[in-house]
Amino acid sequence: MDEPEPARRSRALIALALLLAAEAALLWAAVVWLILELLTDQPTSFASALAILALTVIAALWVSAIVVGTLRGRTWIRAAAVTWQLVQVFVAIGCFQGLYARPDLGWALLIPSVLVIVLLFARSVVQATSRREP
Does Transmembrane helix show up as a keyword for this record (predicted)? Predict the structure, then answer.
């Protein structure tokens, strides 16, 4: 019996998945760094350090799930990815201002977020993620 060939992924969908995967990888790197810091340094507030670690783990898991959903062409990924990108945009805006402003980090967050948002609304990505889930 001949099975239908899986649909080819568009370049926009592949670029979207790669950008999201890079974001997930950086979040996992942050998790490792936070764990190492927790083990080697004395935090001012142990409870706050654990809370930040827990939030970073949750974010890393969520963005990783978005990557998997993107590769599977799931419909829910567009809303999830836009939400995450907006969080990053707001953090980036915060990086541009204040006493401890870090414009370099702001741009590092803002540019990929804008690219992901643009890719999410590309016709081929919308088509690939609009199919009904089985």
Answer: yes
